[in-house]
Amino acid sequence: MIEVRNLVKTYRIAGQSMRAVDDATFTIQDGEMVSIIGHSGSGKTTLLSLIGGLTRPDSGEVKIDGVNIWSLGDRELSGLRNTKISFVYQFSSLLPTLTALENILLPTAFGHVRQDAADFGMIYLEKLGLTDKRDSYPSELSGGQQRRVAIARAFVNNPRIILADEPTGDLDEETEQDVIQCFKDMNKDTGVTFIIVTHNKEVASRMGRQLRMANGILAENS
Amino acid sequence: MRIRILNLAFKNLRRKFVRTLVLSLSVAVVTGSLLGATVFITGMKNALKIGTYRLGADILVVPEKYEAQAKSALLAGEPTSFYMDRSVYDRIKKMEGVKRASPQLFIEPTSFTCCYNVKTFLIAFDPDTDFTIAPWLEKHLKRRLTGNEIITGREMPVITGDTLPFYGTPFHVVGTLEPTGMKFFDQSVFMTMDAAYRMAADSRTKAVQPINIPRDKISAVLVQVTEDMTPDRMAIRIEHDIDGVKAIASDQVISAVRRQLGGLIKGIFVISSVLWVLALLLMSFAFYMIVNERQRELGLLRSMGATRGHVFKLIIGEAVITSLSGGVVGLVAGSALLLSFQGLIVHSLKLPYLLPPAGMLGGLVAAAVAFSIITGLISSVLPALIASRMEPYEAIRKGE
Ligand SMILES: Nc1ncnc2c1ncn2[C@@H]1O[C@H](COP(=O)(O)OP(=O)(O)OP(=O)(O)O)[C@@H](O)[C@H]1O
Ligand SMILES: [Mg+2]
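ok -> structure tokens follow
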């Protein structure tokens, strides 16, 4: 369960302070699929980063399974990111020096190691139609293929929460549908929670719950 | 299958191969030259220590005009001949403050007598009073040198049992001294004074180029002083009491060489320090750039669960792999250069030199390895710290 209380994140731009996330409060139950929509610059990425432990809020709290993540030390917080939370980004986030399979296994370098990680990686490559690309380097993959590898990587440590920031932003419609379907299957199979930022209303409508962000202020969209 | 941080470091370095190579080589140059110079200087000190121990004399008394020749004979083994009256020895031996004294003859052999390229230097000692060769004879031959028997230095291309002719007289090699690094010993032939006088006398009939050494002539007197006397004071006293001689205190020769070495060491130290600082700056700058250009990647690693420590380790790891491999290359190249050029350097410096013992060499090699690791650590600790302190989200954003 994710509980967010009075979360505030302020940036100083040219001497002016600007609230990128302005007093956000909400709760997301385990296994929910939530979409966040909103204009560019409305604070969606900032919000995901606050929830995922990537940037420290000015005030307010983020509790995951009852633990205030911003009261944790670096090790615990990193451990949390390693095992409980995964990110999927809107840009290519693969390491150019690693093959597709190695990229998928990358999170295992930082702590939690599942014995069947390689098998798991292969299963996901297959699910995403990339079996023959396991030894390809990112430079040899198309944008959509890279994104799918990044999605497989997000699953490798069996997270409880996946934070996806426009994961299908630059994919063609068909691949986009595949990815969303993959998320839904994953959600059904393992009960993993999804928070997906998207500009695509159709994608948003396929999630169980929609949040909308405008000028840092979050609201339910119903 | 598992990805390890060290693995990542290797892959990153391989990706930027040229950069890695340049950084590595800069460390190689510093480590190699530093190691080479250190081994070389240690070798000189080593030779001085062993050589003076071997000589065993506190003072060398020679004819006044031959001070320079005597010193270069001692330090560089330059063959030389000069003579003075035996009475010098008789007077020194009776002086207060003299514990032991022993005369020696230095004979520069004619060319073609022996031994091709190696410069040979004949040294004749008095078996009754000698304390230079005596300890060796006692330990290895276990008897005195008699008749036409000779002991040779380590660099003479002969073995025990060989026969060498000097001025028409054949001599029998009965032993070889251990190496000292001083050519005075290593390229010399030691015989008794008796044999030397006889050889000179017989040369008139046996040799193409005869040599004349009357029995009342000697070249030098080696002196050991008593405990309550210093070599310096004794040297002054000898020069005061006896006309026409120069008394060279061996520790003065040594300290002069040490001074010369000191200058050399200082020079090398300054050059190496400058090189080192340059290599450090180059490495630090490169790693600062590396951290900067890889911000997003490092932020991504953090988002996948890398702790600050992991990021720190990754950057430090890359630097240490780079500098260590450079260090190893420098070590090998430096040793190879030293081994191939040490003869030339020694020759041009005219100073004694003996490769330090294996244990010490091992220590120096270990120190060189440690040095290269430390270079990597120092140059990357700040960039690594910066990298590990970045907030993941900021790093990911700024890396765009
Ligand atoms: N590190 C930062 N420093 C300064 N301002 C920032 C920083 N991060 C975000 N902002 C500002 O905060 C606001 C929200 O940014 P954010 O990236 O969260 O928007 P977004 O909703 O994800 O936009 P998009 O849809 O374009 O990705 C923007 O005005 C942005 O300029
Ligand atoms: Mg965004």
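Chain A is about 30% helix and 30% strand.
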